[in-house]
Amino acid sequence: MGCQSSLFGASAQYIKVSGGDFIAIEGANTVDRLTVSDLRMPYKQLLRSRVVLKTGQTNYLLNHLGLGDNATFLCIKAVYNQKSVIEEDNYVKWSFYDDMAKVYTMAQMMVLTGNSTNRIKQLYLSNPSEKYPVSLDVMVGVIDDTYTFFNDSVNQSSTSFVGLNWTDIQTHIIGESFKINDKGTPVRPLIYIEIVNIETIEKTGSILIMDDASYGTIFLQFLTEYDAYQAHSLLNFIIENPNIDISQYQSGDNEDPKVYFYDQVAQTGEFISFNGTFPTYPNTSMGLTFSTEISLSTYGTTASGTSSIIDKSQLIYLLVDKITDNRDGTMSMQPSNIVINTATSSISTILVPGTYSLTFNFSDIAHNTLEGIHMDLKITV
Questions:
Q1: Long-range CB contacts for residues 261-267, cutoff 8 Å, separation at least 24
Q2: Secondary structure of residue 319 in the 3-state scheme
Q3: What is the pLDDT along the chain (381 residues), one digit of tens a residue?
Q4: Kind and range of the H or E element at 43?
Q5: What distance in Å separates the CA atoms of residue 78 and residue 57, rounded to the nearest whole number?
Q6: CA atoms of 80 and 85, how far apart (whole Å)
Q7: 3-class SS letters over 201-239
Q8: What is the number of helices (H) and of strands (E) in the chain?
Q9: Is 125 helix (H, G, I), strand (E, B) or coil?
Q10: Checking DSSP bridges between strand 258-261 and strand 320-325, what pairing results, if any?
Q11: How big is the CA angle at 79 (ends 76 and 83), to the nearest 5 degrees?
Q12: Buried (b) or exposed (e) across 292-324, using 16+ Cβ within 10 A?
């Protein structure tokens, strides 16, 4: 299923997901609804990752995060560069790996489902944009315990290394290449990899799947998932900063990302407090507990009818200035990264005045989280 609705425009006609359903919006009105919240896709294995297709990249093999042709659920959400404002330029090409002559397209989202006897084939993905990369958030489910790693033997070969620690990755030539060492004495390189040849990196469990322009697909199996997280963070850091010497970064990435809040709600409203004080530029390096007050009538948005609501997107807009990380730089927060809590449950939208708590389901590439951080919200009329 491909979803290629138009971007929000002056006509305010668009399709969005709300309450688990696809709804068609026209101005302030809901004009139609496709209920999908009643669907159930069973799974025993679930994998989640982000893939970045570089500018003009062609035929990236999405082997379902290493599960090959075992997948029975696939959801891909595309996140385009904010500078890519021409609607018709924002799309991704794809084809099944065994029939590359037939090319399909997707824009914002695509979902494919299967069952135990009709599974989803691996895909090739291409980014036709010559100006901007595109990020793909990928979720893959498998209906059973099948756990065999695949590669596309029709179109390319792969290289695999097992039993690794993240510290086995070391610089070979600064600014050009790195190596993966064995555990012998003396240590010997298993492979040399040119930094510029790395096209994409995916993580699934304790395995990194690296797409390399020279070697093809490289599978790196680590001894622990912690090693896989650290290696993923380190490799991404090398790509963004090729002139570093890895030997200077042997303590690992164990620093949480930092959220900077505005001083005031929407920069003009009530002040944001940290433990009862009102610091300039409050941020999560100060501690765990923040609070503020938000007027529903002033800062809420109108969904349907005349009632104002505050959803997760609006809370991000009102409260969060930026997120930074020591390795990953400036990061973005999505609605799925925050949780709105009442005294008894979690909700997606604030509809009435009251007391709420905001927590964060967010991590950097090394899986350092914002656990324990919360903001107490007093919502007024």
A1: 261/290, 261/319, 261/320, 261/321, 261/375, 262/318, 262/319, 262/320, 262/321, 265/292, 265/293, 265/294, 265/299, 265/318, 265/319, 266/299, 266/317, 266/318
A2: helix
A3: 444 444 444 457 889 888 888 999 998 888 999 998 888 999 998 888 888 999 998 878 887 766 767 889 999 999 999 999 999 999 999 998 777 778 999 999 999 999 989 999 888 899 999 999 999 999 999 998 765 544 444 444 457 888 899 999 999 999 999 999 988 888 888 889 999 999 999 998 899 999 998 888 898 989 999 999 999 999 999 999 999 999 999 999 999 999 999 999 999 999 999 998 999 999 999 999 999 999 999 999 876 566 789 999 999 999 999 999 999 999 999 999 999 999 999 999 999 999 999 999 999 999 999 999 999 999 999
A4: none
A5: 15
A6: 9
A7: EEEECCEEEEEECCCEEEEEEECCHHHHHHHHHHHHHHH
A8: 3, 31
A9: strand
A10: antiparallel
A11: 155
A12: bebbbeebbeebeeeebbbbbebbbebbbeebe
pTM greater than the 0.70 cutoff = no
Contacts of 313-318 with C-beta under 8 Å, sequence gap 24+, read 315/340, 315/358, 317/266, 318/262, 318/265, 318/266, 318/269, 318/294
E strands, 107-181, are 109-113, 123-126, 134-142, 158-164, 169-173, 177-181
Three-state DSSP at 157 gives coil
d(CA 337, CA 373): 13
Q: Which residues contact 104 (CB under 8 A, 6 or more apart)?
A: 2, 93, 94, 95
Neighbouring residues of 188: CB distance < 8 A, sequence distance ≥ 6: 181, 182
**Which tokens in the block code for residue 229?**
């997280």
Q: What is the C-alpha to C-alpha distance for residues 276 and 271, in angstroms, rounded to an integer?
A: 11
What is the strand order of the sheet 258-261 is part of? 258-261, 320-325, 329-331
